[in-house]
TrEMBL record:
EC number(s) on file: 2.5.1.-
Ranges of Polar residues composition bias in the record: 10-30
A Pfam family matched in the record: Prenyltransf
Keywords: Transferase
GO terms for cellular component: chloroplast stroma
Protein name: Alkyl transferase
Region annotated Disordered, chain positions: 8-36, 49-70
Example of a GO biological process term: polyprenol biosynthetic process
Lineage of the species this protein comes from: Eukaryota, Viridiplantae, Streptophyta, Embryophyta, Tracheophyta
Biased composition (Basic and acidic residues): 60-70
Length: 307
């Protein structure tokens, strides 16, 4: 769930300051063999060019196309993704962890492109959990650096594709330069009207509820509201997802076969449909996304009632 925006020209597995760099592995000729999954992902990325519109067709044609078996009117408005399995993907191939993150970046770009094409309004990705700070400092610093460079590299694409970007989570522990960059990208894209990309960085579902309660308590203290006036709507207005037109995910996808939500959107997932994919995040492509969407469209959402 880490470092999603690192620019593809970066090769984290080969950088000397990468804590996962393994000189012996890189000196092994077998490391030079092309992984078929990486090759497939690179081909998909090459087709997309340097933006999210696809190739060989106009943006209008691309956005109007939809795979067989899916109905545009039943598309979820908001899809959230816990992108899990980057490091396990790399270990299974005898590669350093950085290679898993690099492959995960390609999967992320493909997902953004598909959401733009198929009319999904909000995509939230869990980029960095507040629980991830327990990892080695060198690894965290490395990933923060990649995250910062990646946002800079993607800013032009966000503007070209009319993507609005919001960053949610507690920014206080992030590097100062990254905090400034987050403010810049949010300011530059705030008037975009296409896909709303919400990136959760140093985010905790528990803390989101706590900070909402703290905000309400302050309003009570200031005499703006009375305690008996507090209701579900009061809390929902203070959650960080209130930045989105559709703040609650219709569909949550978690990859790598793990069956838990890992302190993510604990309030917002009350009526969300859950889909757990066995694919590790770098392997998650269009076919996997279609499978999740077909599953979603076949369900009846009752919200506690009958249909």
């Amino acid at each position: 769930m880490l470092s999603l925006f690192a620019h593809l020209s970066l090769t984290p597995s080969s950088r000397p300051d990468n804590p996962t760099h393994n000189p012996k592995l890189h000196s092994n000729p077998t490391h030079l063999r092309k992984d078929p999954i990486l090759t497939r992902q690179q081909n998909e990325f090459d087709l997309a060019g340097k933006n999210y519109s696809g190739a060989g067709a106009s943006p209008e044609e691309e956005r109007s196309s939809i795979p067989d078996g899916l109905r545009r009117e039943l598309m979820p408005e908001h899809v959230a993704v816990i992108m899990d399995g980057n490091r396990r993907w790399a270990r299974m191939r005898g590669l350093p962890s950085g290679s898993g993150y690099e492959a995960g970046i390609r999967a992320f770009r493909v997902l953004v492109e598909l959401c733009c094409k198929w009319g999904i309004r909000v995509l939230t990705v869990f980029a960095f959990s507040s629980d991830n700070w327990v990892r080695p400092k060198m690894e965290v610093d490395f990933l923060m650096n990649l995250f910062e460079k990646g946002i800079k590299a993607e800013l032009d694409n966000f503007m070209r594709e009319d993507i609005k970007v919001s960053i949610i989570g507690d920014p206080s522990k992030l590097p100062t330069s990254l905090q400034r960059l987050i403010a810049r990208v949010e300011k530059n894209t705030k008037h975009n009207t296409g896909l709303h990309l919400v990136v959760a960085v140093n985010y905790s579902g528990k803390y989101d509820i706590v900070q909402a309660c703290q905000s309400i308590a302050q309003k009570v203290k200031d005499g703006l509201i009375e305690p008996e006036e507090i209701n579900e709507s009061s809390i929902e207005q203070e959650l960080e997802t209130n930045c989105a037109e559709y703040p609650y995910p219709d569909l949550l996808i978690r990859t790598s076969g793990e069956l838990r939500v890992s302190n993510f959107f604990l309030w917002q997932l009350a009526y969300t449909e859950l889909f757990f994919s066995k694919s590790h995040w770098p392997d998650f492509g269009e076919a996997d996304f279609v499978e999740a969407l077909v599953s979603f469209q076949q369900r009846q959402r009752r919200y506690g009632g009958y249909k």
